[in-house]
Structures are given as C-alpha cells and as structure tokens.
Design brief:
Layout (H helix, E strand, L loop, with lengths): L2 H19 L1 E6 L5 H13 L9 H13 L3 E5 L6 H4 L1 E8 L2 E8 L1 H11 L5 H11 L7 E5 L4 E6 L8 E4 L17 H8 L9 H15 L10 E6 L6 H5 L21 E2 L6 E2 L5 E8 L10 H4 L3 E4 L4 H7 L3 H15 L9 H5 L6 H4 L11 H22 L8 H9 L8 H4 L9
Parallel strand pairs: 1-11, 1-12, 2-8, 8-11
Antiparallel strand pairs: 3-4, 5-6, 6-7, 9-10
Helix pairs in contact: 1-2, 2-3, 6-8, 7-8, 11-12
Length: 432
C-alpha cells in the first residue's frame, strides 16, 4: 500500500469518527499539521467525490470554495470570547440619534441555521452523477448484490435508457460487453425514492441504488448536506462559558434530524427555539504545549473525540525534493526529536522537564520542510530555536550547558557533535 493510500485511509477513518461523534479535536505540538488536517477533513466530509487529497493546493482551493458557499465556517477562540459573540447577543446601533440594541446571531447560530435549512443532493441526482462516471465499458464498476453477495459489473452505454449489468463470473459467446441484465434507469429512480419498482430486475436495481448511496454518502432519511465549523485554538477560550447551555446539544443523540433524543432550547435574547442539526460537524484544534490556557473540563471532553497528531519524520522525507536538503533536514529532525519513540538521546528527551509527554514537546515536521538550504536555515533560526527558547522560558524544557553549541550549528542547517555524519547519512546515498 502506498503512502498516499495510507494517508487517505487514515483520513477516511477520521472522517468516519467525525460522522459518528459529530465533534472532534485535533491535538498536538506546533507544526504537526493540525490546521491543514482540519481543511482536509472538512473537504472530505463536505465533498466525498473530491479525490485529490494529496495535492495541498487543490485541497485548499476546494476548501475555499466550500467556505465561500457557506458549508465551512472558521473561527478562533480566545480568552475574551463569550456566549454573546459565539451564539447570540445584544449589539448596540444608532437609530434617529438614539442608541438601540438588536439581537445579533454569532457564528455558531448562523451556521446551525444554514445547516438546518440546506438540502443536499438527493438520490436522484446522485444516480445521474454515478451513471456519468460509469459511462462506457472501460469505466465499469464492480458492485455487490445482496443477499447472495454476488459481485456485479455495471456500466452505462451512452443513449440507452438502461444500465448494463452482469455477474463478474459470467461468460458469453456474445463477448465481454454483453449484459444479460438491463434494469431501466427511470424505474431504478422510482424504486430509489419508494414510488415504484424495477419489476424485472428488482434485486439488481437495489444493488445499484446501494452502490450509489455508498459512493456519495447518501444517508437514509435525510437530504441535508454537511456543514463544518472549525474552531482553531479551541482550548484558549472558556468553552463552557462560550457554549453556555448549548453544550448539551452538541451530543450526537441530542441533535435534531437524526438524534435519538433531540433537544431544543429557547435562546435568552431572541427567545427563538434553537437546536443543533445532525448535519453540523465541529472540528477543533488544540496546541498541547500551550500553558496559558486552562484544561478542558470533563463535561466538554465527553462531547468530543480527540485525535493526536504527532511529529512525523516520513512527512519530512517525502516533502523535500533536493537530496542534500532532505539529508540535513532529516538529521536535524532526528537530533531534535529523536529517531523514534524509544530514542532518549535527542535534544527534547535530554531537556524534558515538568509533566509534559515527550511527544507533546517535539518540534512538528512542518518546521523542517524546506525547498533549499537557506529556507531550512531561516526556519531553524527564526522558528525552531525561538520555539525551544520559549519552552525553556516556560519551564517545560530545562536549559543545559552547551545549548548554545546546538543553536549555533542549527542556524547553519547543521547538526551538533560527532554523531552528525552517522545521523545525517542519506539512505539513498548507498544506491548511487
């Protein structure tokens, strides 16, 4: 399995967790890719047909399109944010020379309203899209037919009013493109919405409908399309105060349009009846080394699932094209973070202090990705070294004699000490 496939599989697992829990928090040290992962998750959830997840620029382009369409909203929590900013509050305005107050919705209420009202593509339009994807025998798909778990090949011939189907094991003298089963498209659509049946090929029509639903993530009983609220630095705000009584409504079973025990509340200012729709998903990010914030309380933790993003050496290795720069970047990554979880000789491991986990203190992989040596040197001088100085100042790393030698070497993009030649050796070098 390729790294790209592994990455997509991992992302799909995270998307499934988000669908199940409705609320997740990505936590990790600075530079571990939390912000970019939120964008990838939001795009994958909102547009399951988007497949170019390995292309950073295209992911961000699709993210921006979805944001402009209102399916994705973004905000950052901070210590002065409160319920009135996030949900709704009274805002002053001047009318006829007098100060009056009006109720103004916050970002959370606005996206809940959008998610509750927006209807997504129904099964009919999804069938039409799927048919275009299987146009021509060369674009045939393999689907499953229940209850006997038969595997079917399906494809569409331009101009026909039927779908071509045959068992994957079926052989005919008429050629491989012969289709003994040809359910009618209009009857398939009628069967999909419960207003008819493909009486000649009912089971095959059901198999086709199931394949379409799986392809486009069409859920039973709902036509709403997903909306995502991204909350950056979620632990920098007082979450219980910001959400107020709505914290209970975040639970999956308390949501409307899908929850087992939907709840509505009356908002204090507008007096409107309010609920959180099942089609709204919340993705928060949290910096695990930020000591300026308080801990997230248990009431909040119960309503979120947590995904930890770690500093990943493979990302550095796969992101740098220049061999010499890659060699230096990997050597620096190893010297600062260690070669693995058991490496206790790294800078982070030998300077660890306080009660932080070692993984929380590692410098994220994004700090080591550079296109050339000058960029790598700038990142070390102006980003990595200041970050480590801040950790030392905050007491989560302890200063040691000889730290200056490390910092001086890193500013040049080099490792410190006699181990450099061994540590920084490029595994590709032996192949040349």
């Amino acid at each position: 399995m390729s790294k790209g496939t592994q990455s997509t599989d991992r992302l799909d697992q995270q998307v499934q967790l988000l669908k199940d829990k409705k609320n997740i928090i990505l936590q990790g040290a600075p530079g571990t890719g939390k912000t970019y992962t939120t964008a990838s998750l939001a795009v994958r959830l909102c547009n399951p047909s988007f497949t170019e997840l390995e292309d950073h620029a295209k992911v961000m382009e699709e993210y921006e399109r979805l944001r402009e369409d209102g399916q994705i909203a973004f905000c950052t929590f901070h210590q002065s944010m409160d319920y009135e900013d996030f949900v709704e509050g009274l805002k002053p305005e001047i009318q006829d020379g007098h100060v009056t107050y009006k109720v103004e919705s916050g970002i959370f209420k606005r996206i809940c309203d959008k998610a509750g009202k927006a209807t997504g593509e129904d099964i009919i339009s999804c069938i039409d899209k799927y048919i275009q994807q299987i146009r021509g025998y060369e674009n045939r798909r393999e689907i499953s037919a229940k209850p006997d778990k038969t595997k079917l090949l399906v494809w569409y011939t331009e101009g026909n009013r039927t779908i071509n189907m045959r068992n994957v094991l079926y052989e005919s003298e008429k050629g491989e493109q012969y289709a003994p089963y040809q359910p009618n498209i209009d009857k398939i659509k009628a069967q999909a919405i419960g207003k008819g049946v493909e009486n000649n090929h009912t089971a095959y029509a059901n198999a086709f409908i199931k394949a379409v639903k799986e392809e486009y993530h069409v859920e039973e009983g709902t036509r709403t399309k997903p909306h995502v609220l991204i909350i950056d630095e979620i632990n920098r705000g007082n979450i219980s105060r910001i959400f107020g009584e709505l914290i209970t409504l975040l639970e999956a079973d308390k949501r409307t349009d899908g929850g087992a025990h939907p709840i509505k509340v009356t908002l204090p200012y507008s007096k409107e009846s309010f609920s959180v729709p099942s089609s709204l998903y919340i993705i928060g990010t949290m910096n695990t080394t930020d000591r300026s914030t308080g801990a997230i309380d248990y009431a909040v933790r119960r309503r979120f699932a947590f995904i930890t993003l770690e500093a990943n050496r493979e990302v550095v290795e796969g992101s740098i094209q220049d061999k010499d720069v890659r060699t230096k970047a990997l050597a620096l990554f190893d010297e600062i973070n260690g070669k693995g979880a058991e490496d206790k000789t790294s800078f982070i491991a030998t300077h660890q202090a306080g009660d932080f986990d070692l993984e929380d203190l590692k410098v994220g992989h994004s700090y080591f990705i550079a296109k050339d040596l000058p960029e790598l040197q700038r990142k070390m001088r102006y980003e990595v070294i200041p970050l480590l100085h801040e950790y030392i100042k905050d007491g989560i790393l302890q200063a040691k004699e000889g730290d200056g030698e490390y910092f001086s070497a890193w500013e040049q993009g080099e490792c410190r000490g006699p181990k450099q030649a061994e540590v920084s050796k490029d595994p590709e070098a032996d192949k040349e």
